Amino acid sequence: MFGCECFCWHKHSDVVEFPLLQPQPFSLPSPIPEWPLGQGFATGKINLGELEVVKVTKFECVWSCSSLRGKEKGLSFYKPVGIPDGFFCLGYYCQPNDQPLRGYVLAARERDTSCPEVYCDYDSDMDFSALRKPVNYSLVWSTDYGNGCGFFWLPNPPLGYKAMGIVVTDTANEPNVEEVRCVREDLTETCEIMDTLLATDANTFQVWTTRPCKRGMFCRGVSVGTFFCCTYFVSEDQELEIACLKNLDPSLHAMPNLNQIHALIKHYGATVFFHPDEDCLPSSVPWFFKNGALLYKDGKLKGERIDYLGSNLPSGGTNDGAFWIDLPREDNARNNVRNGNLESAELYVHVKPALGGTFTDIVMWIFCPFNGPANLKIGLMSIQMNRIGQHVGDWEHFTLRISNFTGELWKIYFSEHSGGEWVDAFNLEFIEGNKPIIYSSKHGHASFPHPGTYLQGAVKLGIGITNDAARSKYFVDSSTRYQIVAAEYLGDGVVTEPCWLQYMREWGPTIVYDSRSELDKIISLLPLLVRFSLENIFDLFPTALYGEEGPTGPKEKDNWLGDERC
Questions:
Q1: Which residues contact 176 (CB under 8 A, 6 or more apart)?
Q2: Which residues of 404-449 form beta strands (DSSP E)?
Q3: Which of 114-118, 125-129, 367-371, 541-545 ranks highest by mean pLDDT?
Q4: Mean pLDDT of 408-426
Q5: Residue 149, pLDDT score
Q6: Nearest-angstrom CA–CA distance, 388 and 514
């Protein structure tokens, strides 16, 4: 199955030909348990309305390539195998060779919607059927250097249908039209390019992963797992010649029920480690309120004590600047709240559909009463700032993405200040069974998959804010210390949202830093040969150096309804 050869397609004199070790399949550290009984979660199949799909994870390598003299990662292209009877391939899969084999493509079959348990055995040329064979194929690109050949084919769909992926062969013969199926256009949504997997010299041939254009809690686009390739420039907003599927089942039956959610969190709940020198630890929201947090209203000098449940906070609306929360005024109480209270800390969980209900996002929010000052790095110099970076009420999060086909942890999103990144499960650290580790950075509480120092700013110049992450005795185990605060898809009354979650205003006052005076002192310490002008220095630093509006709560963040930023 993995006996492919690897070839380059640069100049003839530069062609390197050698056997390439194929990636091996990845498994989580521990077996996946049997989940509590439910409707359609982790049953291996998902109903999308007129279609039922399965996730195929077994592949046969068709063709592999390596960059010049093996200096860069290679890429392999795979045909899905072991497709269950009655299901049809929609396209092929590809991935880099420097990571474990852990992808998928969907295979589909048509359902008889008048009788949900009956599956249609239509002739694929029947009018209006959900799946039809392509008319033929167009050759997108080919290479014939060395002894191996790769040919990339785009299915040409019948009128009113969409291709879902590319077919790859190792011969020049056009693929059989039985190889894949196209999908009726009203059962699809547009997709966009995502990660670049391959780009030849002068970008004459490029390969990308794809994803639905519209993503979020209420979006229905389903990723097929296939790739897109072409020999022309593709803009970000350009409609591709392949599409993704659409989930037209309003019940989202493959989403986990409440018992299954608890089981998932107990099995996959991450341990969040804080830096050994962290002095701005998390707390529970009720602890923050009980220990003197004050609600301020625009135009009033005196703050109001907040009920420990947040019942006297203004509910709903938008962040109009009319209200904000601040620390207690008394120094002792203020310092106590700034330091947080690890014993009370818990993760606040929002569960929502992702990628049309084929995945579940378990978003875990952590609250810190205070965000400490930033640490500035300029070359080899590391300088602790006095006030820059400080603010009241810090909300950070990470997201577990779970496959609804199997209940397997697929990847985790690490929120890192103004952005973040998705990290596949094979690149995570695990502490116990399948429980991953999250490293929270000192003072800023950004999430990272591994310990170390991460620079935010002009990374190539070695200038910016450092995010230091390390394991310590300070940690929160989210598999036991959590509270589910929202899961809208379960319906009214299943999960009771806390009062404070409806507070849409700022959890801290607006702060303007005197960055210029602090930076003037820093610049004066630099050697003359490496000094920048003051204005250039300011341009290189993150905008958070200059001031911050008070942070808003989870429901005001874009990812509450939308997908994560990356």
A1: none
A2: 409-416, 419-424, 430-432, 435-440, 447-448
A3: 367-371
A4: 93
A5: 86
A6: 8
Please tell me the distance from the alpha carbon of residue 89 to that of residue 86, in angstroms, as a whole number.
Answer: 10
Q: Is the CA virtual torsion 532, 376, 334, 321 positive or negative?
A: positive
| Per-residue pLDDT at 253 | 96
519: enclosing H helix or E strand: helix 515-525
Query: In which residue are the tokens 């950075």 written?
Result: 441
- Return the ∠ at Cα 47 (arms to 46 and 50), rounded to 5°: 145
Q: In this structure, which amino acid lies at residue 418? A: S
Say if CB 189 and CB 76 are below 8 A apart.
no
Contact status, residue 353 vs residue 217, Cβ threshold 8 Å: yes
Sign of CA dihedral 441, 280, 341, 560: negative
**Which pLDDT belongs to residue 2?**
38
pTM of the model: 0.91
Residue 319 CB partners (closer than 8 Å, separation 6+): 504, 505, 506, 552, 556
User: Could you tell me if 133 and 182 are in contact, meaning their C-beta atoms sit under 8 angstroms apart?
Assistant: yes
Question: How far is the C-alpha of 175 from the C-alpha of 156, rounded, in Å?
Answer: 12
Q: What share of the chain is helix, strand, coil (3-state, %, to 5)?
A: 15, 40, 50
Using left for φ > 0, alpha for ψ between -120 and 50, and beta otherwise, residue 330 falls in: beta
Q: Would you state the structure tokens that stand for residue 33, as one six-digit string?
A: 């348990």
Q: So what's the pLDDT on residue 70?
A: 43
